């Protein structure tokens, strides 16, 4: 496995065998089973697998969030070697954004609600770094997790709009046995917060139970989730949403398919989770 901070070495490895298919898994490190599920899928579907580990400063809108983001590159590389990854790119900030850097990628409408509204500039940072990763690795397929549902939708939109020659593969959320969605941020939770953090999944499951009981009203689904979250003293709701799974616009009235999502602070740690009901719908 080649581990390198240098862009030119990744490019050289990518083009050493031009006929092969490549899967790319972009990450910010602190890898967990969720990331490894993407890596395994990439391993199964491609001749070569590349992973990037880069805590991308321009997608953080809170400096304290960037500073506290867990970093454990050596351990990450051990995990990736065990999965049979071929190339790991670990660029420095100066390698990714050299002095004088001034090009950014902005996707418009679908970046405005939800995470976009709560975290100004976040998606501009994500699409800029992902576009650069696509240019460097030129992957056949790129793998993202459904946990960041809006990120996946935004990247799909960017790939369509800018005609990137690759397939975006979105993989299911991987959960802890108690339902908490796996996230690098979970490492930051104290013991009581870790227990409280299951409230996100419990809120989603309550809305799912209501849906299964015939409830289709979007506001009623949001109210069900808010009621469960209100029962957890350590939880502070950032947003709760029942939106169209394709356009991400908030729904009113009866839904045929819906993306339920939420962002909730548990102590200082901001967690997100989501669930799609009634299928994704078509773009
Ligand atoms: O999902 C993430 O970890 C990041 O947003 C990504 C896609 C690696 C871009 O920095």
| N- to C-terminal distance | 38 Å
**What ligands can be seen in this structure?**
pantoate
Elements, N to C (H/E)? EHEHEHHEHHHEHEHHHEEE
Architecture of the largest domain in CATH? 3-Layer(aba) Sandwich
User: What is the top-level CATH class of the largest domain?
Assistant: Alpha Beta
Basic shape: globular
Largest beta-sheet details: 6 strands, parallel
What's the number of structural domains? 2
Q: Per DSSP, what share of the residues sits in E-state strands of 2 or more residues?
A: 15-25%
What value does the average pLDDT take? 97
What is the CATH H-level superfamily of the largest domain? HUPs
Structural class: alpha/beta
Compute the number of helices. Answer: 11
Structure description:
- By secondary structure, this protein is an alpha/beta fold.
- It has 2 domains: 2-171, Rossmann fold, CATH 3.40.50.620; 184-274, Pantoate-beta-alanine ligase, C-terminal domain (Pantoate--beta-alanine Ligase, Chain: A,domain 2, 2-Layer Sandwich).
- The protein is built from 11 helices and 9 strands.
- The chain has helices at 7-16, 33-45, 63-68, 73-82, 93-96, 115-118, 122-137, 149-162, 191-196, 199-212, 218-230; strands at 2-4, 22-27, 48-53, 87-89, 141-145, 167-171, 235-243, 258-266, 269-277.
- The strands form 2 sheets. A 6-stranded parallel β-sheet has the order 1-4-3-2-5-6, sandwiched between helices.
- A hairpin with a 2-residue loop joins β8 (258-266) and β9 (269-277).
- α7 (122-137) crosses α8 (149-162) and α10 packs antiparallel against α11.
- The radius of gyration is 19 Å and the shape is globular.
- The structure holds pantoate.
- Residues 26-28, 56, 59, 126, 129-130, 148, 151 line the site of pantoate.
């Amino acid at each position: 496995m080649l581990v390198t901070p240098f862009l030119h070495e990744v490019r050289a490895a990518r083009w050493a065998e031009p006929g092969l298919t490549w899967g790319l898994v972009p990450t910010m490190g602190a890898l967990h089973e969720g990331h490894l599920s993407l890596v395994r899928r990439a391993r199964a579907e491609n001749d070569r697998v590349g992973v990037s580990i880069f805590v991308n400063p321009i997608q953080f809108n809170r400096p304290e969030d960037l500073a506290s983001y867990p970093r454990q590159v050596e351990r990450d590389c051990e995990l990736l070697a065990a999965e049979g990854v071929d190339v790991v790119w670990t660029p420095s900030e100066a390698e990714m954004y050299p002095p004088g850097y001034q090009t950014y990628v902005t996707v418009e409408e679908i970046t405005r609600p939800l995470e976009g509204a709560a975290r100004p500039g976040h998606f501009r940072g994500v699409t800029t770094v992902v576009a650069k990763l696509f240019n460097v690795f030129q992957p056949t397929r790129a793998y993202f997790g459904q946990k960041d549902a809006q990120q996946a939708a935004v990247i799909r939109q960017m790939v369509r709009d800018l005609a990137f020659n690759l397939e975006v593969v979105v993989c299911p959320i991987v959960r802890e046995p108690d339902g908490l969605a796996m996230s690098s941020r979970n490492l930051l939770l104290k013991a009581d917060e870790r227990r409280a953090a299951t409230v996100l999944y419990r809120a989603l499951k309550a809305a799912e139970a209501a849906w299964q009981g015939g409830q289709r009203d979007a506001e009623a689904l949001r109210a069900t989730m808010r009621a469960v979250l209100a029962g957890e003293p350590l939880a502070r709701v950032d947003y709760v949403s029942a939106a169209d799974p394709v356009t991400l616009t908030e729904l009113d009235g009866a839904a045929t398919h819906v993306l339920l999502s939420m962002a909730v602070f548990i102590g200082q740690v901001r967690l997100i989770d989501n669930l799609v009901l009634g299928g994704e719908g078509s773009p």
